[in-house]
Write a structure and sequence with these properties.
- It is a single chain.
- It is built from 22 helices and 15 strands.
- With 531 residues, the chain is of the alpha/beta class.
- β12 (309-312), α13 and β13 form a beta-alpha-beta unit.
- α6 crosses α7, α14 crosses α15 (373-382) and α14 (346-362) packs across α16 (386-397).
- The longest helix has 21 residues, at 421-441.
- The radius of gyration is 24 Å and the shape is globular.
- The two termini are 37 Å apart.
- The mean pLDDT is 90.
Length: 531
């Protein structure tokens, strides 16, 4: 009998095509070209895998992406509703497409019928570079937190990006999603925040567009703009500054200038020598020649201090040259078209466990001590929101940083089976800080004082009605979140309050943090990692 679960259907072309398909071929899959009407995929669709590859196009990338979304709708509309959602990988050309989908979601029929994993090359490389995975014996790129940042550490992460192309934007956003540490305390006079500095000669227009697209994040963040030529510094404070406790643990710096400017060179030298800064430099301009020029201009002290320098290159030849030379041992090329995508989707594997765990604690079920594969998959199938599925992915992306804060490396993940109460308490606040930044990046905003008052009264009314056995009023906290992107819990950790269940929202951060060892252990068992 034909093994339907070993069939991959591919539509479209891209330089990464062979790299992806060869992974499936090595695992024994049969590869098929997907027909325009998708009839051959639909025949075996319940158990098959679909890969949609949009072709690189510099003229109208959105049009190419829209064609892919239209094709997804065609497939979903023709597919019967079954107990299984086929896995679909979709490579989009524009990061704007991915942003729109994460903010406004896929068509409902697509979410209902297909388990879609959308990505761009820029998104793929950002995750490859910043996210470590359990059980890895050799990291391809140095982590942002090369030295463990504990709750009493004085060290901060400082990412400096030269250039502000599409890849640089995505790298900066992913760094903001990941780099959260237990030494940030909003009550400190000078809280230790992750710092992201972006240096570009045309920073003004690019900065304005960037801030407008992520307005919720920057409205509640500290950031400053520096003009090297005019020697002017403009500081922006959160709109709630001095009214509420700060709750964003990432700060930004936009520098109008070049890495060749004397002022920037001097700062790079000082930052390299600062023992309280863990510096990482990324060079990502619009073309390889400019990136190489910028790397050649970097101060020699970066090499002497072994400061990682990541350079975007689209071809292998120069990348291989840099990797082979001992003089460039601190330089890490990335961005090659024929590398980087893991069809096993390790982050999604872990995200499924987290999703199941969260559902159990949110629905007042018994907290799981192990994961039943069928229950985990069923919970994932029931999650029809792409935004919420990616929220689980963003959460597990930060597990390596959290582990490292407790002294563990990805390579010793097999020994990481339990957290004590003090460790959970420390990382629970870190998890809340991470979640706040994620929500702001995805476009949510905090409640106004008036909205907070209305929701607080509504929560109490729900609790009272439940105690009295009366009909409960509509949960306005949920309504505001779903319809308006207004989130009651976007605040400092110690300002979290009870929700309609009667629990303080802090309990979710505690429980999710406690799930880390089980998620890692289960992932290692699933991928067959041997001690």
């Amino acid at each position: 009998m034909k093994d339907r679960s070993r069939n991959v259907y591919v539509r479209g072309n891209h330089p990464i095509r062979d790299y992806i398909l060869n992974q499936y071929i090595s695992k024994g899959y049969s590869i098929h070209e997907c027909l325009d009407d998708a009839s051959n995929f639909l025949e075996n669709g319940e158990d098959a895998i679909l890969i949609l590859l949009t072709s690189p196009c510099h003229l109208d990338r959105l049009e190419v992406d829209q064609d892919a979304i239209q094709y997804l709708k065609l497939v979903a509309e023709k597919m019967p509703l079954t107990d299984n959602r086929p896995q679909v990988h979709v490579l989009f050309q524009s990061s704007v497409t991915l942003e729109l989908l994460l903010k406004y979601d896929l068509p409902s029929v697509v979410n209902e019928k297909l388990d879609v994993y959308p990505f761009t090359m820029e998104d793929m490389w950002a995750k490859n570079i910043w996210v470590g995975l359990p059980g890895i014996t050799k990291m391809l790129y140095p982590s942002l937190d090369r030295l463990s940042i504990t709750s009493d550490s004085t060290s901060r992460i400082h990412l400096v990006i030269s250039g502000f192309d599409e890849q640089a934007e995505i790298l900066s956003i992913h760094a903001a999603l990941i780099a959260h540490f237990p030494n940030y305390r909003s009550t400190d006079r000078y809280p230790i925040r992750t710092r992201i500095t972006i240096v570009d000669q045309q920073i003004k227009a690019k900065r304005e567009a960037f801030i407008a697209r992520y307005s919720s994040l920057f409205m509640h963040s500290y950031y400053r703009t520096v003009s090297v030529q005019e020697q002017v510094v403009l500081l922006h404070k959160p709109v709630s500054d001095e009214k509420r406790k700060a709750f964003v643990d990432v700060e930004w710096e936009f520098v109008e200038g070049s890495m060749t400017d004397g002022i920037v060179q001097d700062k790079m030298k000082r930052w390299s020598m600062d023992e309280n800064q863990q510096l990482t430099v990324v060079v990502s301009h619009g073309n390889d020649e400019e990136n190489l020029k910028q790397v050649l201009c970097l101060p020699q002290i970066l090499k002497e201090q072994n400061i990682p320098v990541l350079i975007r290159l689209r071809r292998n030849e120069l990348a291989d040259l840099l990797k082979e030379s001992p003089l460039s041992s601190h330089i890490y090329p990335f961005g090659m078209y024929d590398r980087g995508y893991d069809v096993e989707l390790p982050l999604m594997k872990m995200a499924k466990y987290l999703n199941y765990f969260y559902r159990c604690i949110y629905q007042n079920k018994e907290i799981p001590t192990d994961f039943t594969r069928e229950e985990v998959e069923n919970a994932w199938k029931d999650e029809h929101s792409l935004k919420l599925r990616f929220s689980n992915i963003y959460n597990v992306m930060t597990i390596p940083c959290k582990m490292h804060s407790l002294g563990h490396e990805p390579t010793d993940a097999v020994a990481f089976y339990a957290l004590n109460q003090s460790e959970i308490a420390s990382l629970a606040e870190t998890e809340h800080n991470r979640w706040c930044v994620e929500r702001l990046i995805l476009g949510d905003r905090p409640c106004t004082d008036e909205e907070k008052k209305i929701i607080r009264q509504n929560i109490q009314a729900i609790i009272d009605a439940r105690c009295q056995g009366k009909d409960e009023p509509e949960d306005l906290k949920v309504r505001y979140k779903k319809l308006h992107g207004v989130h009651y819990d976007l605040c400092a950790f110690d300002e979290l309050e009870v929700d309609a269940t009667g629990k303080n929202a802090q309990v979710y951060d505690y429980d999710l943090t406690a799930s880390i060892p089980l998620i890692y252990q289960t992932y290692l068992e699933e991928v067959g990692y041997e001690r």
